[in-house]
Amino acid sequence: MIEQKMDISSQQREKLLGRLLDGLRATASIEFGDDDAATKKKAAELPETLKLCKKYDVAPSMVNQLIESEV
């Protein structure tokens, strides 16, 4: 099966990239002992954000590395 990349606007790509970075920051914060609910929620959204980034071809090399390392 050939995976088709979907097109989104540059504004949507920017928002998705911001969401990815927020998820990564939250994951790092948890590693350093920050365990508030908002941080945990953002970190928990990271796997879904990675899937969306892959689907819409946002930051493909970074996303592929993160998926391969099973963040």
Describe this structure in words.
The protein is mainly α. It has 4 helices and no strands. Helix 1 (10-31) runs antiparallel to helix 3 and helix 3 crosses helix 4 (60-68). The radius of gyration is 13 Å and the shape is globular. It starts with 9 loop residues before the first helix and ends with a helix. The mean pLDDT is 88.
Short description:
With about 70 residues, the chain is mostly helical. It is about 70% helix and about 0% strand.
Index terms:
mainly alpha
Question: What proportion of the residues form beta strands (DSSP E)?
Answer: under 5%
Order of helices and strands: HHHH
Q: Helical content, roughly?
A: 55-70%
List segments where confidence is low: pLDDT < 50 over at least 5 consecutive residues. Answer: none
Distance between the termini: 25 Å
Q: What summary fits the major beta sheet?
A: none
Shape from CA axes? globular
Helix/strand structural class: mainly alpha
Q: What's the tally of helices?
A: 4
Q: What's the gyration radius in Å?
A: 13 Å
The whole-number mean of residue pLDDT values reads 88
DSSP E strands, number: 0
Write the layout of secondary structure elements.
Blueprint: H1 10-31, H2 37-44, H3 46-55, H4 60-68
